[in-house]
């Protein structure tokens, strides 16, 4: 009998490797959450993940499942191609707000409208991280970005887009929610919601999306701690953290 | 390889021949966005694919459609999309991704008049786009059918080539070829089975995870991928290079060079010219990439002049000049904007007085 006990291991669906994300970035934690869900639902060997173009472009080096790197914004279309030809696969996309809400707005809206049986992990960090902090469709009013040096002005750049509320106007989607990575409490909530977004696909054969409010301390010009505090005080005030379209209630949620 | 086996001919429309050729070869997935003059293809596929256990899905745009193709190909399927000129422009990024990610797929361009929104008449003005497609170093096989039968045959063939090259293959048709009806004989034999695709992303059961990717941050790695893709293209090119000749052997006065619809017109022009005593002939490239350069160079040794006939302002003529390397003069005759040079226009343009005025 060994007296040391293993109490914490990386999920099987995550390669045990260093990640390239900046310190304090919530991308890494979110990867872990998604990988845990894939493990817990026993989906690792049937899953195909689609990476975006954005900071998470290297997600194929981290998720220990079959991975496809898509063109900028097109992950929902790529996911559709996989799912339609291999309905037995569990397909998820992992996309930033430039990828999903700017260049890829068309693809996400139509995938949701078709109730495409895919799961979307949508990372809203309010900026284009990878390309050095330019304005995103989700950048808050007054928030500075490298292409919004005066802060976002509604009369010039318009208002930030609330993606989940917008998709909620569609009849198609099966599950829609917003979550936050601002604290351990919120991360547990995010995991519950993301799990439902997978169940929307595996149990309800439909579209599940969680918008996950995330931090980009590097381009927000904040320390990791300040960034999380700012999320609680400011980001979450504009983007309500809620379940907008719950799973159909007739069926168990598999908790 | 055994000879292809054909059944009884029936009258088929070009666009439908493309569909049946694809289905014969085992294509079961189609994603596309409507654009004239190729709308019969998605319409036909939307009825026909479910009959053979396949899936048709109308994408919300050409951008979405080519990326649906990317996903289906990544998961191992034989998959196709079709479009016409402006739509192909929108697909170009996706086609480059297919190539860099080493994914087979078949794309058909039923070309229309351009540039811009242009018109829905037949044109060959996407030759340069087809043969120089996409950003990055991109060798891509391009086929140029000239009849309904060839639309059928080439679409089926394109799937084989795409799997062999692990790359997208483009079939360059036009509005006339797509719309016209001709007798067509369908294949009654079975296609060669598609190769195993151990690289496909369809769940890692019993193996290490696969990755489909076109990001190579290290230029050395990108170069080696480009070299690998190029080597496969060269290998397949050696086997697929094809052209047709029509009285070219003794065409010492004049060799016409044309592909697709304009080659059909040139066949009549050759008959006219021969009747008038000019020893004329025609070379029709069937593969535009690879291009029959060596054969052209050989024929250029023994003919007085070459005239390239195109439905554009002169695009393939550059490739002919590169192939001929000054062995004989290379001239150009063409119409643009969706117009087709007539037999009379060609015959008049190649008359000796016209050439001496140049
Ligand atoms: C067609 C195309 N346009 C632009 C780019 C450049 N680009 C790469 S990532 C990116 C924005 C990514 O931002 P986001 O999706 O918010 O992800 P983050 O990096 O913040 O995680 C842009 C504009 C590209 N790769 N391809
Ligand atoms: S730039 Fe921002 S989003 Fe990208 S890894 Fe760094 S902190 Fe994360």
Label this structure with key terms.
heterodimer, A: 255 residues, alpha/beta, Rossmann fold, seven-stranded mixed β-sheet, two-stranded antiparallel sheet, 8 helices, 9 strands, 16% strand, globular, B: 358 residues, 2 domains, 13 helices, 15 strands, disordered C terminus, binds thiamine diphosphate, binds iron/sulfur cluster
How is this structure best described in words?
The complex is a heterodimer of chains A (255) and B (358). Chain A has 255 residues and is of the alpha/beta class. Chain A has a single domain, classed as Rossmann fold (3-Layer(aba) Sandwich), CATH 3.40.50. In chain A, the strands form two sheets. Chain A has a seven-stranded mixed β-sheet, with helices on both faces. A two-stranded antiparallel ribbon of chain A has the order 5-6. The longest helix of chain A has 19 residues. The radius of gyration of chain A is 18 Å and the shape is globular. The two termini of chain A are 33 Å apart. Chain B folds into two domains: 215 residues, Thiamin diphosphate (ThDP)-binding fold, Pyr/PP domains (Rossmann fold, 3-Layer(aba) Sandwich); 114 residues, 3-Layer(aba) Sandwich (Rossmann fold). Chain B has a seven-stranded mixed β-sheet with strand order 3-2-4-5-7-6-13, with helices on both faces. A five-stranded mixed β-sheet of chain B has the order 10-12-11-14-15, sandwiched between helices. A two-stranded antiparallel sheet of chain B has the order 1-8. In chain B, helix 1 packs parallel to helix 2. The termini of chain B are far apart. Classes of the chains: A alpha/beta (255), B alpha/beta (358). At the A-B interface, strand 1, strand 2, helix 2 and helix 4 of A face helix 3, helix 4 and strand 9 of B. The site of thiamine diphosphate has 18 residues of chain A, from helix 3 and strand 5.
